[in-house]
Design a protein that fits this description.
The chain has 414 residues and is of the alpha/beta class. 30% of the residues lie in helices and 26% in strands. It has twelve helices and 18 strands. Strands 1, 2, 8, 9, 10, 11, 17 and 18 form an eight-stranded mixed sheet that branches. It has an eight-stranded mixed sheet with strand order 5-6-4-13-14-15-12-16, with helices on both faces. A two-stranded antiparallel ribbon has the order 3-7. Helix 2 packs parallel to helix 7 and helix 3 crosses helix 10. The chain is globular and about 65 Å long. The two termini are 35 Å apart. The relative contact order is 0.19. Bound molecules: flavin-adenine dinucleotide. Flavin-adenine dinucleotide binds next to helix 2, strand 12 and strand 16.
């Protein structure tokens, strides 16, 4: 595949853009693959990419029931940070954050990574202590964060109101190399690179069954017929429980709607990401000028990919206390995605009771930031049966009580 470059843009401009190739192929399924990945979200595509790049495994299909990136990967608010408390989380999220730094060059695809900085506001004394503890833990983990004063918060975010009626701003956990990236571009960039390595991306193909013989996976039933495989990676986020049931085992995951909205576009007024976990809201400004706003999950399980309107109202009402200027903005769009939440708010990257089947799920409200690190580690797990990045995230932790409690870092936060 031809590389994208300034020269290529100039060449195509001179010939009316007639020479661009398709970014990824639309092949017919083969009878058998070494590895099938179900789910062409960021995690599934990144896994396929690192299977090829790091392990030379390219007889791979990524099977997607809709269009690639049409699940949570194309629905999230794109916050990237790695300021988690527990060591295994800091390791995988920091690996991911560092891969985002060079992703555009690695994929030859502009993912618009914008390390503009992320602040998590401390608005109660409990949060002050919690975030100071996280800053100390991050220092030991080699993750660069710092606890900053309210005055520094105000310097970074001039539109903030420090003395809100319920929750004044008492400081914040600041990660200056956190930020955002263009979510669709992450999926498209990985898809193009996978297709270039000869992998098959099968869109509009739903996996309707999983087959095994003697406790070992043999393939998947799909809406385009049976496709055989030696190994199977299930990477379907909010639908992981449904797919696991088809394979004959259960996962300790609940699926709930998480929603977000954008305002009408306005002039640039905030060039960092701000998260206010006490009031359940967070905000950044997109390159188009829209204020991108999100809150917490719905309180009941469902699969509707919509979310309830009262949640939006609560989130906006709470954020207005800290950002009074947004009270005069109009809402432009609202949407939802189905996120996969575990009891300890940490993901599952694991072998399963069926030999050859691996599961990558449980990223809940915060998996966009993890995509490259998750793909890196999960590819190693699938290829070699073990990875230092994923060891702690096995399913057996729920049986053995070795939880990775990230409920402060990931319960509401993204
Ligand atoms: C509103 C919202 C805001 C968020 N904000 C952030 C944020 O700011 N930062 C952050 O880090 N994270 C955020 N997240 C979480 C993040 O989006 C997810 O954790 C991440 O995108 C999960 O990626 P994935 O590849 O695992 O899943 P997905 O992108 O959902 O991909 C799974 C794919 O599997 C497909 N699939 C399902 N069942 C089948 C089947 N049977 N056969 C074939 N295909 C199937 C689906 O169609 C889907 O495309 C947010 C999520 C939402 C909904």
């Amino acid at each position: 595949m031809r590389r994208y470059s300034a020269f290529a843009i100039a060449r195509e401009a001179a010939r009316y853009h007639q020479g661009w190739e398709r970014a990824w192929a639309a092949p017919e399924p083969k009878k058998h693959y070494d590895v099938i990945i179900v789910g062409a979200g960021g995690h599934g595509l990144a896994t396929a990419f690192y299977l090829g790049k790091n392990f030379g495994i390219t007889n791979v299909a990524v099977i997607e029931k809709g269009w690639l990136g049409g699940g949570n990967t194309g629905r999230n608010t794109t916050i990237i940070r790695s300021n988690y408390l527990q060591d295994p989380s800091a390791a995988i999220y920091e690996k991911a954050r560092s891969l985002y730094e060079t992703m555009s060059q690695d994929l030859n695809y502009n993912v618009m990574f914008s390390p503009r900085g992320v602040i998590m506001l401390a608005q109660t004394h409990h949060e002050v202590r919690g975030y100071q503890r996280t800053a100390h833990a991050n220092a030991l983990q080699g993750v660069k964060t710092e606890f900053i004063s309210p005055q520094r918060v105000k310097e970074l975010v001039p539109i903030i109101h420090l003395d809100g009626p319920r929750f004044p701003v008492l400081g914040g956990l600041w990660q200056d190399r956190g930020g955002t990236a263009r979510h669709d571009a992450v999926a498209w960039g990985y898809a193009r690179a996978c297709s270039d390595m000869g992998m098959d991306i099968l869109q509009k193909t739903e996996v309707t069954g999983v087959t095994s013989e003697g406790g070992k996976v043999t393939g998947v039933e799909t809406t385009r017929g049976f496709i055989g495989c030696t190994k199977l990676g299930m990477v379907v986020a909010g639908h992981c429980g449904v797919l696991a049931e088809k394979a004959g085992f259960r996962l300790p995951v609940e699926s709930v709607a998480l929603q977000a909205l954008v305002s009408e576009p306005i002039k640039p007024c905030m060039d960092v990401v701000v998260m206010a976990n006490t009031v359940h809201g967070y905000m950044s400004q997109s390159d188009k000028g829209e204020m991108v706003i999100g809150g917490g999950t719905d309180a009941y399980n469902n699969y509707t990919q919509r979310g309830s309107f009262h949640h939006i109202e609560e989130t906006v009402r709470a954020l207005i206390e800290t950002f009074p200027m947004i009270s005069r903005l109009k809402m432009l769009r609202q949407w939802g995605g189905i996120v996969d939440v575990t009891g300890d708010r940490s993901p599952i990257l694991s072998k399963t009771p069926i030999e050859g089947i691996f599961v990558n799920c449980g990223w809940g409200t915060g998996g966009f930031k993890a995509i490259p690190g998750s793909g890196w580690g999960f590819a190693e797990l699938v290829a070699k049966g073990q990875s230092p990045l994923t060891d702690a995230f096995g399913l057996n932790r729920f049986r053995e009580g070795r939880f990775i409690d990230e409920s402060v870092a990931a319960g509401v936060a993204h």
